[in-house]
Every structure is written in C-alpha cells, then in structure tokens.
Fold:
Amino acid sequence: MIEDNSLEFDMFEDARRRLVEVLVSEGRERLDAEKMALYVVQGLREMPRFIKMLSESRSHPRAEIMSSLKLVLLNAGALEKAREMLLNPEAEENS
Structure:
C-alpha cells in the first residue's frame, strides 16, 4: 500500500485509464471498456495493502490481516464482472 492516498489514487486512476485505452484499441466500445476497467481497479484496490500486511505479518495482528482478506474477497466480485464482460461479451449485451 502506498502511504500517500493521493499517490495511490493516481496510480489506480492511471491504470484504469490505460486499461480503457487498451480495451478500446482491442475493439471494445468505450462504455464497456470503462466498465471493465472500473471493475478491474475495484477488484484490485485492496490487494497492495493485503500483500503488504502479509509480508509484514509479524507486525499486524491476525484479526487485521483477516479483515483485509475479507475486503479483498468482497471486491473479487468486481473482477468476476470484468471477466464475464471480457470473455462473454454476448452475455453483457443480453442483460
């Protein structure tokens, strides 16, 4: 996790924008690309904090690590949405 929240926000926002451009260049409609990129960033947002906690596990209580894991898993649904959109574009059109 990056200590400066504004730097962390900028990093995720830059990643989201870059992913949108990649998806559009691959032929996705901009709105779909925006949705997918948002889902991906949402799904990954808690991961750096979780990884940092695990690498420093001696300095974090187990309850704090489990709380962070729960956030990661709660946001995993966003990655599932992105996966569905990317791998099953017809399903998105029919919903």
About this structure: The mean pLDDT is 88. The radius of gyration is 16 Å. The chain has five helices and no strands.
